[in-house]
From TrEMBL:
Residues 130-189 form the HAT C-terminal dimerisation domain. InterPro entries: AtLOH3-like (IPR055298), HATC_C_dom (IPR008906). It comes from Coffea arabica (Arabian coffee). This is HAT C-terminal dimerisation domain-containing protein. Coiled coil: none annotated. PANTHER family: GENERAL TRANSCRIPTION FACTOR 2-RELATED ZINC FINGER PROTEIN (PTHR11697), ZINC FINGER, MYM DOMAIN CONTAINING 1 (PTHR11697:SF230). Pfam families: Dimer_Tnp_hAT.
Length: 220
């Protein structure tokens, strides 16, 4: 364990003014640790938009875990109004609050709605007990929330593809080229159906080039 109180001496390739000495603790805490945390936070902010974060924060408001401990009518209504406005009419948005108030009373005494651990179980119980016919708007909102893992699958695949494509040898790849390469990798099932002759012909039609790209359709 190095002595954190001694003066830090910069190694080769690092320049620091001699009239500004720092300790080992300052170097590792400020120059290394905090600088790394700041870069990670900035990267997260660039990748995840505020709307996506708010959606993930509001979604657990209907989660049945711990007997609906996180249940919040205001957040659920905000979730429906802001992110699923196209799935509910203005009249249904008003009726949703009424159904939530009635549902809050029922799950406090209905044993079938207690001790649930996931939204999937809640959706299944509402269907089995035919409560989905009484709380049609709540059931619709639950099904919409359950589609979130599917909608975020492409994002997760993009992060995995980025690790494969943007390696240390390709770290200076431009954003447009990286985005196009990731699309081809993620949608490789579709890319396999492309005909190389049609790609060459389309590229030849974009603009005139010195080299002749047009080929006869004999290559297989």
């Amino acid at each position: 364990m190095p002595d954190m109180n001694v003066i830090y001496k910069a190694g080769r390739g690092r320049i620091r003014k001699q009239n500004d000495p720092i300790t080992m603790e300052h170097h590792y805490r400020i120059d290394v640790f905090l600088a790394t945390v700041d870069s990670q936070i900035l990267e997260m902010k660039n990748r995840f938009k505020e709307d996506v974060i708010e959606l993930l924060i509001l979604s657990p408001a209907l989660h049945p875990k711990d007997n609906f401990q996180a249940f919040n009518i205001e957040q659920i209504c905000q979730l429906a109004n802001k992110f699923y406005s196209a799935d509910f009419t203005d009249q249904e948005k008003l009726h949703l609050r009424t159904q939530l108030e009635l549902f809050q009373i029922e799950f406090s005494y209905n044993s079938q709605l207690q001790n649930l651990s996931s939204l999937q179980e809640l959706c299944q119980v509402l269907a089995k007990t035919r409560k989905s016919m009484c709380y049609t708007l709540i059931d619709r909102l639950i099904r919409l929330i359950l589609t979130l893992p599917v909608s975020t699958a492409t994002t997760e695949r993009a992060f995995s593809a980025m690790k494969i494509i943007k390696t240390c040898l390709c770290s200076r790849m431009e954003e447009d080229f990286l985005a196009n390469s990731m699309i081809m990798y993620i949608e490789k099932e579709i890319a396999r159906t492309f005909d190389i002759n049609s790609i060459i012909d389309d590229f030849d039609k974009i603009k005139s080039c010195r080299a002749q790209f047009h080929m006869s359709h004999t290559v297989k």
